[in-house]
Amino acid sequence: MIRYIREISVAAALAILLVVLAVAAPGFFKPAQLFAIGTAAVPVLLAACGVALIIIARQIDISIGSQFGWCSVIAALAAQQGWPMPFVALAAVGTGAAMGAINGGLVAGLGLPSIVVTLATMVTWREALRWWREGAFIHDLPPAFQWFGFGQTTGQITLIAIALLVFLLLVIALKHLAAGRFVYAVGSDAEAARLAGINPRIVTFLLFMAMGGLTGLGALFGAVRFADVDPKTGQGLELQAIAAAVVGGVAISGGRGTLWGVLAGVLLLACIAPALVFLHVQPQWERAIQGAIILLAVAAERWK
Q1: What structural domains and CATH numbers belong to the chain?
Q2: CB–CB of 213/92 below 8 Å?
Q3: Tell me: the pLDDT tens digits for 231-257?
Q4: What is the pTM of this model?
């Protein structure tokens, strides 16, 4: 129980917030409102799971916002050209995985610091996309693109269900597969992992690829929510994902953390903004409250 105290505390904070809302603002729990919060949180959850894996392995990726923008644009352009949705999905995920492979090659292959590499690629990819698209939205998308051709409610349920399925598969892989244990081993002590027969460079490279693939999937799920796709989408996603992972108990020093805590962190941070609206609190307090939660999470990690 003590081992998962961070995850439990975040889940408890979320439960307290929901109880307060149930008493003070029961309108928060209308199905339309919950579906809106859930679908908005889906891209963040997928990105946060990837970030959590990267941080557990004692690395960082702050380029995922730029990756998200590129994957969204590629998916929209593929759909605009009449590609079937399975191929659109492959294009989005493949683009993200390729970008992750570039980061992974520079970090694992050349031994460069991940913070420096991903900062450079974040700026490079963002500016390249801005130069290419010049801020122009992608319009005239086929009916099969938005909500995958379903109605809004069915589409929202579909997005949430697929995201939860991917999340559960990641949880199982991280806990029960050897590859998942490799992630913890590399994050705890890369040299000890190497002596045990694990190649830290290969693990790191594959994690960055997986991070990119999850970002691409999240970008697709974010893009299909709208009739048009904004090339600036994804800005700030890296901060949301990292914050959710840290708040959810992933140790910034690497080697510790669970995806269940990440899920609780994503939901807690996602509920703050709409909760403030229903509680009639000024919206500018959202960032302050989120910042306070993040600081408390980091402080708890230091005190642990």
Answers
A1: 2-303 (1.10.3470)
A2: no
A3: 999 988 998 999 899 888 898 888 889
A4: 0.93
